[in-house]
Amino acid sequence: MQATLKLAVGSLLIGVVVLGLKALAWQMTGSVALLSDALESTVNVATAIAALVAIKIAARPADANHPYGHHKAEFFSAVLEGVMIIVAALLILHEAYKGLQSPSILDAPLQGLMVNGLASVLNGIWCWVLMTRGRRFRSPALVADGRHLQSDVISSIGVTFGVLLAIETGWAALDPLLAGIVALNILWSGWKVMATSLSGLMDEAVPDETMTKIRNVISAEAIGALEAHDLRTRHAGKVTFIDFHLVVPGTTSVADAHEICDRIEREMKLKVPDAMVTIHVEPEHKAKQTGIIVL
């Protein structure tokens, strides 16, 4: 089983355990804020399932109907996660509003907070695993899942602080008020997850840092060519697609031009892992004098 798939399965298992702990904490206390925390964890489980399915689809090899592969499935998963995070936030706002209408004293708050704290520790550890490994494997679905858990951990810390404050002050309305604040934070997190994923679905170009690497490789490795122009890039999942026109002298043989292209592709895949490179060779009269000059 590939590493990203193992992490996705791990997310699902952790999500189920954390959901159980947070639901128990809510039942022990009756806290609206802890209920909001549990509601967010139901989304964690749902998004973990979505990420697992997306990663399995993205791992499929290219076929006749999908000649560029299935990598964009991860972006769809991340967008779905963003939508579900926003739905969870709206549910929490609804519960917070009902709690403000009729605030109630909490039952067994300290014991409930201890159970909720254990769930937050598990989430925090797994969040770090997902974000570090997700970036290493360049998996948008895992990174989105990690960011979602990060917002969950932050909101859980806020919930704990608020419930303790409500206990100390005796002001029961603090509990639902804090749940509303948590919901607003979750809304912002959901929007960020969606915005990042939509950029991939819209074939946004690679970041400037990666573009600089690509241009440097072409300039250094295209010895025998004159220039490169019309450079285009996009990313889908962990794959970076790169295509450009390479201008060579009119006397260059097909074999020599092919050797130049092979050299560029070999070096490009070292500097930009999982790169898919397409090069269109052109004679010198097609030069634009505005592209990448070969060193």
UniProtKB/TrEMBL annotation:
Q: What positions does the domain Cation efflux protein transmembrane occupy? A: 11-202
The record places domain Cation efflux protein cytoplasmic at 207-284
Q: Give the family, as the similarity comment puts it.
A: Belongs to the cation diffusion facilitator (CDF) transporter (TC 2.A.4) family.
Q: Which Gene3D superfamilies match?
A: Cation efflux protein transmembrane domain, Cation efflux protein, cytoplasmic domain
**What broad class describes the main subcellular location of this protein?**
membrane
Pfam families the record matches: Cation_efflux, ZT_dimer
A Gene Ontology biological process noted in the UniProt record is:
intracellular zinc ion homeostasis
Name-wise, this protein is: Protein p34
UniProt keyword Transcription regulation present: no
Report one GO cellular component: plasma membrane
Its membrane topology is listed as: Multi-pass membrane protein
Segments passing through the bilayer: 41-59, 75-93, 113-132
Annotated compartments = Cell membrane
- Give the matching SUPFAM superfamilies: Cation efflux protein cytoplasmic domain-like, Cation efflux protein transmembrane domain-like
Gene Ontology MF term list: cadmium ion transmembrane transporter activity; ferrous iron transmembrane transporter activity; zinc efflux antiporter activity
State the source organism's domain of life: Bacteria
| Organism whose genome encodes this protein | Paragemmobacter aquarius
